[in-house]
Structure formats: structure tokens, C-alpha cells
Amino acid sequence: MKDGIKILWKYIRQNAVIGIAFLLFVCIFAGIFFLYDLEVEAVIYAGLLCASIAIVAISIHFYFYYKRHKQLLYIYSNVELLLHELPAPKTLMEQDYQDMLKELAGIRNMEMTQWKSEQQESLDFYTAWVHQIKAPIAAMRLILQAEDSKENQELLSELFRVEQYTNMVLGYFRLGSSVSDFVFQEYPLDSIIRSMIRKFASQFIRKKIQLKYEGTSVRVLTDEKWLTFILEQLISNAIKYTEGGCITISVEEDKVLSITDTGIGIAKEDLPRIFEKGFTGYNGRSDKKATGLGLYLCKTTADKLSHRIQVESEIGVGSCFRLYLAEDKLESVE
């Protein structure tokens, strides 16, 4: 009702010139009738007759005006799909507006096609770059592993970080791509977690961090590669900000995976923004090399997998990241 009154008011304002002209004509006729001293009844009868016809005509015109407005609102809500279904223009101005809309839509489609092409070229380039750079990384690892010295252990640690950053770049471009390579099926969560533990084993040993994990029999519906990507970022962050403490990985029965560390923690004022792109917070300002992309990519990936991620933290005590992996249960309707 309120919406209808608002549209009626806009209709009246839009056709105010016609209403003023009608009233002016009524005044002219009334003046002429008065000058020629015609009977008042004739004036009233003519006025009522004109007013009745005007009310009927305006009502019909407003009905089609309102109906057209609703039709345009529906097209507006799905404009990318329904632009070609615009109603036939009734005036030259409507025709001009529709021509401009179609021209703009054509320009947008052309630019979107070009943008997608450039995105795909960038993705192809960085994919090839990551695969090419893995060869010298592997060669450098073999050379450094030939001699078990403290210096080589430090270099291996830095080389590990280089490999992590290259994978992060590739993940960043793939997540931003319109092409999805997600493969969803049930996986044993234990095997995914243990593969991550093996991958980061040297980092735990190097920093003398204790790891607590008791195993789990939980199976989750997810994409193994991208869930691994999330865990890589979370475990990497936990190791990065924990010195000689403890990292605990646990899985609850309701498929909540927790990664808890005894690191430096996250400032309370930073917690609401840690998943924002490029946000580094207090810890990031202390570490000049922080990019603010790791947790952003975790959140983006979790959203695409329909998982939920939360964090609790306290300065000087540590942080706990929880990944909710339970899938929504669908109820059958009989």
C-alpha cells in the first residue's frame, strides 16, 4: 500500500503539466460561461462530465503505468539475463534510453570478455611459473640436504618458505579465476592432517615446537586439495608466530578442526579484520615481510568450500583457529 502511494505521487508529479493544463482549460471555460451569463447548472454539468472522463482516463493510464513499472523492476532485478526483454518503447525518449542501455551492455560484455581473457592468461602464466620454479627449488633442496650443517638447515627452512609463497600466489590467482577446479567427495580427515604434519615436520623440529595430535576417524565432505591449502596457511602461521611452544591439532565429533598455538597471539582490536585482504595488523607491522594474504585466502577458500572459519586469541597466550567442516543436512520432503 505504501509503495503504491509512493508510485502514485511520482505519477502525479510526472504528469503535473497535463493536470495544470486541464485546470487552466476548466478556468477558461468557466470564465467564458460566466461572461456570457450562462446558467450555472450547465457549467457544473460540463465540469462534472469532463472530470468524470478525466478520472476514468487517468485511472486506466495509471494502471498501465504501474504495471509497466513493476515489469521494469522485475527486469532490473535480473538485468543481466532479461535486458533483451525490455518492453517496447512508447515514446521517443524511452527509445533513446533503451538504445543507450543496449549500447552500454554491449560495451560491458566486450570488456568482460577481454578481462576474462587477461585473467586466464595471467593464471596460465603463474601456473607455468610455479611449475618451472619448483625444479630449481627441488635442486637446491637436494644440494642443501647433502650436508647436514646448521647453515644448510637454515637455508632449507627459508627454501621451504619460498615454496609456500609460490603456492600462495598460485592459490590467489586460482581462487580469483571464474574457472573452478573443485572436486567434492568424502575424505578421511586424519590422512589430510598427517600429510600436513609430515610436510611441516622440519619446521617443528627447527623451532623446537611441540606438536599434539591424537588422530581422528572423522570423514568430511570437501575438496582435498583446497582443504590442504587452508591447513597449510593455518599451520604455517601457527609456526611462524610460536617460539618453542606447543601447537595442538584436534578434531571434535561435530567435525570442528581446531589448530591451537601458544604463540604471541593477536591483538583484540585486530581480530575483526584479520581475514580482510591485505590486513596485517599489529603482528604484521612487527614482521615487515607479512603480506596479509594468508588468512584472507583461508577465509575465501573456506567460503567456496562451504566451510566456516573462526578465531579466538589473546596477546601473550596464543590463538585458536576453528574450521567447521560439517556439511548441512538436507531433509527429504515426502
* Largest sheet: spatial strand order: 2-4-5-7-6
Shape: elongated
Structural class: alpha+beta
Main sheet summary: 5 strands, mixed
How many angstroms separate the termini?
Answer: 37 Å
**Distinct helical segment count:** 11
In sequence order, what are the helices and strands, one letter per element?
HHHHHHEHHEEHEEHHEE
| Share of β-strand residues | 5-15%
| Percentage of residues in helical conformation | 55-70%
Radius of gyration: 34 Å
Q: Which residues form runs of ≥5 with pLDDT under 50? A: 330-334
Give the integer mean of the pLDDT values. 84
Number of E strands: 7
Q: What this model shows, in words?
A:
The chain is of the alpha+beta class and 334 residues long. The chain is built from 11 helices and 7 strands. A 5-stranded mixed β-sheet has the order 2-4-5-7-6, with helices on one face. A two-stranded antiparallel ribbon has the order 1-3. A hairpin with a 4-residue loop joins β4 (246-251) and β5 (256-261). α5 (92-145) runs antiparallel to α6 (150-176) and α6 (150-176) packs across α11. The longest helix is centred in the middle third of the chain and has 54 residues, at 92-145. The model is unreliable at 330-334 (pLDDT under 50).
